[in-house]
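Practice problem: predict the structure.
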Amino acid sequence: MAFTERSAQTRAAILAAAQRRFAAEGYDRATIRGIAADAGIDPSMVIRYFGSKSALYTAASTIDLAVPVLKDDPDDAAASYVRAMLARWEEGGNAAEAVLLRTAPTRPEAAAQVQEIFDREIVPAVRAARPGDPHARERAALLLSQSLGVVYCRYLLGIEPLASMDVDTLAAMVANAVAGHLSASMPS
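Answer:
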């Protein structure tokens, strides 16, 4: 195995271990030693690859939502957005999102990351679906609040009956709410 391939594997193992620890324990309780133990390496290697716990956290929580192109019709836009959002969580592979959302309430830099994602991905998607709408940013905020509510309750907290609800039923109900956020009259 080549050195760069081994380095890439070590880096990936550290990131995976960090995502699990940060998601389960939060930023403050997760330790470099614990992350290193989970990755099966010496703690000095974590610092070698990432420099600091803060830099490791940033790498472990960096995400691209890949928000689908939202169509002009609010019902179609809502349905495609909700299906993509739920599929992402149903399929797993969202460790970075879990890290970010679990730590955002207590870590200002994590909250700033959520704001950045909102500005970079959610707002432009809503503006594309609602060209010329002076309330696109507010609609995007409502869409995000609906999404985060579902994610927190179903996937992070396991609140019943939402946690065990049929995903198709959930998608239909959430899409109705999101369509309302995209199409309802907004006070001037």
